User: What shape does this take?
Amino acid sequence: MREVAVIGVGETQFGELWDKSFRDLGIEAGLRAVQDAGITTENIDAVYVGNMSAGRLIDQEHVSALVADYSGLSDMHLPTTRVEGGGACGALAILQGWAAVASGLHEIVVVGAAEKMTDVGEVKAMEILTATADQEWESVFGATIPGLFAMMARRHMYEYATTREQIASVAVKNHRHGALNPNAQFQKEITLESVLKAPRVAEPLGLFDAAPLSDGAAALVLCPLEKARRFQDTPVRILGSGQASDTVALHDRRDLTTMDATVVAGKRAFHAAQKTPADIQLAEVHDNFTITEIMAIEDLRFVKKGQGGPATEEGQTTLGSRIAVNTSGGLKARGMPVGATGVAQAVEIVRQLRGEGGKRQVQNAEIGLTHTLGGTGATAVVHLFGRVN
Amino acid sequence: MAVPRFWREVSSRYNLIGTKCGSCGTVDFPPRVVCPKCGRRSVGRMQKLKLAGKGTVVSFTIIHDAPEAFELMKPYVLAIVELDEGARVTSQIIDVENEQVKIGMRVESAFRKLGSEGEAGVIHYGYKFRPEM
Assistant: This one.
């Protein structure tokens, strides 16, 4: 297998982008990544598109060919493939792109991911998200995605004495980081009190524990590491990746407070990269809800099981501490264009490793990690990225 | 949910029919063709099993933001219940004040309306759980 590098990154603004269509977003992110890589469109050999539910959100399937078409690539007749895995689509698309380059199938690959969530109402968008849970044995009984994560939170509080304040401190931290990200949906700090007093969505979680439903897209350009410097002065290497699955229904899991898919995907990625959690300076982890970040930093072994709450409250995961978690603002503040998440996370890590983090730059960032979930954790994907010295 | 899709699962939703693996004895709900514990060895050895419908609350939430079909029920309690036979289910907890529900609480299944389909109002029935009598 060949070593693979990221030579270009691009993303859109994240938010409620009424004036932009799905294809506008995909094209914008893709062209930015191509421009950043210093390649021309003629260099591209294949396109992978992460997208969760264009079929239900904008009534348009077949979006991989569509985005390539409107990016001006139709005459090249490129192979284009859509990848779906709940909220993990983008991270899975990176894995497909990596495999294509590593194996020698393709030389230069564009991995894009996009979601347009605000053309349908909020209630409808939540129902579509809930389709990533088990429709027959969860949703039909009144389960919602916030409700399922709330049951993880309740059990985590019960087993580890995690407090409501500790859980809420994830939102406060991620908004503080998001305030430093010009592409974030929410560039505004919030107080612990406002999180605790926000309207209840699914107890014990409230509105400010939840990531927003967003529009947005992000893209990467991948090529073999040996060719990377022809295009990019500061390529970033994909050090290793891991993907894992678990039961779709939360009630069938071994433990409600641990996502085994995250544990296994993390182990596989660390093993592939020959690294340990202590080697990581920054991570973008899946924080669709506050509790999800707490479980993720435990399951990725950044902190001991049960210590995610206290560690976050003490500031161990904030910018400037031993590990900076969600410097982009995370899904919580950067925004959650669901299927685009994994690629947006990778864009942040690559920028940080290139020293382009601006006001939120992590000092001496050498190795960064992304962690992306589908559903309530039936899919987990972990990627490790490293600076090329 | 489309009527045929609901109808296909009525035996389990009405009568709590699960399966017991003839190889390792693990109980699953809903019925499975292959046992998650012993894989291929279980194929053809999965036996139907009617569950007693008694169990314990493992975790729960009170849902305030509900899907359209559940709008009239909110706020309602949704829980994961571990049945005494070992399988777990997601279901609503009823016949008790929301604030009284606790982890570890004993509950039993009850046959209830779950919802209805569209404006024609085809009713879906199934299990909910209430405090054990």
In short: Residues 22-37 of chain A form the longest helix (16 residues). The radius of gyration of chain A is 19 Å. Chain A has a mean pLDDT of 97.
